[in-house]
């Protein structure tokens, strides 16, 4: 399985020196608010983030308390039923939101930072550094990601920390290749040549001059990785490669499958965390599509104007 591609629209805003000032930020905010995909994505992620931050507001049941009837269907007392040992499924779903979202954000953010360090540095420095970093990127691009993850997580100590570290190490290469390509297109721009003439350091040029012109691509890289990580982390935990004592949506799927939730007629136990994974991935995907539409006018939906009938 490979990381999702960053669509061409994400790089459409990379045209020269970054626009500064409140007018540019205001126009960007207005474009976000007017885009229905962005509004829906932000709303989904805001709700999930609020649940992850304050799970105690939504349930007062201990998710590990096996004190209820076993394999009970949804009811007023247990909105999503109970597990095979009498744990409340709704409470597990709520409390599992925190670690699931944390893994997704940490892996996506860390992989994006690594791709920036390797991709942009290779493009700007050039020479032997570019060839070495490009070779390193190519090696990670051709590695079979899923088998490698399965082997590493099987031999390393089980848990979210292992899954997070392994996914960070294996998911940065594609974004680094994209950033290197955009960095090469910016390398000969006049504003960069002017910065070199002024005697600015390479670190200053990369951070102040290059990266602000790649914001749309960086955001698209983060969001694309987040969509990938949501499903892939849950898939690894579903295969039993995570720590079964940790509460995530993936471990809920693992336990429901191991204990035959579907065969026992308790389908909600498996469908609830699966739907939650899909909703979280949808939130990141909608934001990604929205940034593509904002950056590339050709992708924006055409709205038909209503023609008033003549008198």
Question: Would you mind describing this structure in some detail?
Answer:
- With 311 residues, the protein is mostly helical.
- It has a domain at 25-118 and 129-134 and 143-173 and 217-299.
- It has twelve helices and no strands.
- Helix 3 packs parallel to helix 6.
- The radius of gyration is 23 Å and the shape is elongated.
Tally of contiguous helical segments: 12
Which percent range fits the helix content?
A: 55-70%
CA distance, first residue to last residue: 61 Å
Spans where pLDDT lies below 50 across 5 or more residues: 8-21
Please state the average pLDDT score.
Answer: 81
Total number of beta strands = 0
C-alpha-based Rg, rounded: 23 Å
The portion of residues forming beta strands comes to under 5%
Q: Main sheet, how many strands, which sense, barrel?
A: none
What is the helix/strand order? HHHHHHHHHHHH
Large-scale geometry: elongated
Structure class: mainly alpha
């Amino acid at each position: 399985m490979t990381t999702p591609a960053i669509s061409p629209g994400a790089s459409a805003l990379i045209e020269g020196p970054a626009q500064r000032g409140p007018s540019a930020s205001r126009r960007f905010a207005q474009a976000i608010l007017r885009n229905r995909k962005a509004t829906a994505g932000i709303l989904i992620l805001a709700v999930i983030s609020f649940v992850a931050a304050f799970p105690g507001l939504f349930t007062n049941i201990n998710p590990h308390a096996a004190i209820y009837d076993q394999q009970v269907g949804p009811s007023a007392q247990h909105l999503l039923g109970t597990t095979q040992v009498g744990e409340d499924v709704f409470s597990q779903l709520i409390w599992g939101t925190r670690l699931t979202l944390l893994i997704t954000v940490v892996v996506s953010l860390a992989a994006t930072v690594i791709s920036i360090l390797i991709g942009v540095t290779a493009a700007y420095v050039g020479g032997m550094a570019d060839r070495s970093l490009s070779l390193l990127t190519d090696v990670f691009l051709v590695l079979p990601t899923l088998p490698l993850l399965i082997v590493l997580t099987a031999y390393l100590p089980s848990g979210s920390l292992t899954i997070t570290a392994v996914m960070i190490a294996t998911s940065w290469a594609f974004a680094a290749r994209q950033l290197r390509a955009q960095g090469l297109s910016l390398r000969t721009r006049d504003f960069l040549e002017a910065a070199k003439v002024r005697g600015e350091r390479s670190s200053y040029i990369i951070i102040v001059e290059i990266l602000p012109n790649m914001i749309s691509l960086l955001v698209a890289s983060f969001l694309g990785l987040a969509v990938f990580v949501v499903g892939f982390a849950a898939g690894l935990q579903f295969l039993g490669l995570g720590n079964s004592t940790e509460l995530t949506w993936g471990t809920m799927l693992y336990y429901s499958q191991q204990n035959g939730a579907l065969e026992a007629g308790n389908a909600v136990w498996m469908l609830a965390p699966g739907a939650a994974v899909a909703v979280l991935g949808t939130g990141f995907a909608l934001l990604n599509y929205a940034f593509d539409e904002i950056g590339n006018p050709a992708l924006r939906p055409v709205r038909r104007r209503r023609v008033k009938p003549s008198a």
